[in-house]
Specification:
- By secondary structure, the chain is of the alpha/beta class.
- The chain has 2 domains: 1-77 and 154-163 and 185-234, Rossmann fold, CATH 3.40.50.300; 85-152, no CATH class.
- It contains 11 helices and 10 strands.
- It has a 6-stranded mixed β-sheet, sandwiched between helices. Strands 2-1-4-5 form a 4-stranded antiparallel β-sheet, with helices on one face.
Length: 234
């Protein structure tokens, strides 16, 4: 579904991503893990067409994304849920969700998709008339993911969905990610919570200083000695 080959991204003279290659097959959960500043968010933003790539290629469903705009990528089903949630604080929960269904196909299915989002996140239905900015951190993350689902993703890219959340909410969030995936939504997950991310992933990539240093199955990476020392504290 997604094929990235030898991707290089610069910000000015800073070489952020160096010959990064990543692939994601349909209905997989694939994780990209690494420390702060490794280039994980830059990778997602480049896939989403926020950043320009300097060299390399990105294909989504065999379509080269070089000249595809962000709105067109969204219509293709390439949806990113950004780090930091970025809900609209003065709009209600319902209004935030409705904004996710702005392209034509999503609009046609809005009511059905809204029902599915409320099934996954019942608290959002309870709070549908409440301002998004008054929700707890965990509820805002649910709202951000729900808004992404309203766009009818084929590939859902999640940027640090557990960031700043308590342990119980983090576990809930990972359970939700697995449930979304069971509904045949392919997921590319960027996470600092290495253990939980790789536990639910079929495959993973380790990004260090803009370079893919390791790749393999989720289980295999969790058993890797470098991973244990560098990321798992073992």
């Amino acid at each position: 579904m997604l094929e990235i080959k030898n991707l290089n991204v610069f910000f000015g003279k800073a070489h952020i991503l160096r010959d990064v290659s990543v692939s994601v097959d349909p209905e997989e959960i694939v994780s990209v893990v690494g420390a702060n500043g490794a280039g994980k968010t830059t990778l997602l933003n480049t896939i989403s067409r926020f950043n320009d790539q300097t060299s390399g290629s990105i294909f989504f469903d065999d379509v080269c994304l070089d000249r595809v705009s962000y709105p067109s990528a969204v219509e293709m089903g390439l949806i990113q849920v950004p780090e930091g949630r970025m809900v609209f604080p003065s709009l209600t929960v319902l209004e935030n969700l409705e904004l996710g269904a702005f392209h034509k196909t999503a609009k046609r299915h809005r009511e059905k998709t809204l029902g599915e989002v409320y099934r996954i996140f019942p608290i959002l239905e309870e709070r549908r008339n409440q301002a998004g900015g008054t929700l707890s951190g965990g509820e805002q993350q649910m709202l951000a993911i729900g808004r992404g689902l309203m766009s009818l993703p084929r590939l859902l890219m999640l940027d640090e969905p557990s960031l700043g959340l308590g342990p119980l909410v983090v576990q809930t969030m990972f359970n939700v990610i697995m449930e979304i995936n069971k509904n045949k939504v392919t997921i590319l997950l960027v996470e600092q919570n290495v253990r939980k991310a790789l536990t639910i992933s079929s495959r993973g990539y380790v990004l260090e200083n803009g370079v893919i240093s390791l790749q393999g199955t989720g289980d295999g990476l969790l058993k890797d000695e470098h991973m244990k020392k560098a990321f798992l504290g073992l």
